Amino acid sequence: MEVKRASVLGFCFGVRRAVEYAEKALEDYSGKKVYSLGPLIHNEIVLQNLKNKGLEILSEDELEKVEAKSVVIIRAHGVSPDVTKALEDKDCVIINATCPRVNANQITVQKASSKGKTIILTGDSNHGEVKGVAGYAQGKFILLENEADALSLPEDDGEAILLSQTTFSPVQFEKISQIVGQKYKNLKINNTICPATKERQDSLIDLCSRVDGVLVIGGKNSANTIRLFQTAQKNCPHAAHIQSAEEIPADFFAFERVGITAGASTPDVIIEQVEKALTK
Ligand code: SF4
Hints:
Helix 4 (100-114) packs parallel to helix 5. By secondary structure, the chain is of the alpha/beta class. A 4-stranded parallel β-sheet has the order 1-12-10-11, sandwiched between helices. Helix 7 links the parallel strand 8 and strand 9. It has 10 helices and 12 strands. The site of iron/sulfur cluster (SF4) has 13 residues, from helix 1 and helix 4.
């Protein structure tokens, strides 16, 4: 059997960096309390491994549980300045793993709102990244979750900037930008969607045309893995979503060419285990 990997798969830059920062912090500060505010990654195996090394995962609303002088890892989604300030007040060591793309949005929002511009962000109100970025707005801030929200906006001739949660749907962003562009006469549109998701999707579509079946490896609760699986189902006659090598469906072992891809929070070691299991 021939196993073909998608040309882009697995950890995105921001998630890889956050996991590496966490591993280093657990080594450097062994004996101290080390927390992350929210799960660093949507992958149970990696999280369990970090927990075994001592990482304590709190939710973003559990700041009061953070012990003074402890170590806190800020995940790739970032946090609002209020959270950073609360941790500084507790004398915590802050390991900032905010993805540079998210940090760029935070800086844009801070600068634009300090000049009196209205900030319009597309995104999910419950997402940690959105809460963090919103915290950098000092003046008027509008969150649009969908087209209906955009349609309900009144017309405005003030200066505004439109940007997006990095993992927002590009199609939705395009539709929302057109609506907002008609309402705001002085609007700067800044498409800040991260290319990581599109790169994985595009290389999967290419892979599907060259194999008999595709295995999509990743957590069952990982949104980007689920979207990859949906694309595989549309473009390949056989597709399966698995979390580990043990879950490879039996019929895949009979195929001549099997393609593999993986979500942005799937570690390299699991991808390698699947590859090995197919070829042994
Ligand atoms: S998806 Fe993009 S923005 Fe989000 S953590 Fe990964 S690299 Fe950063």
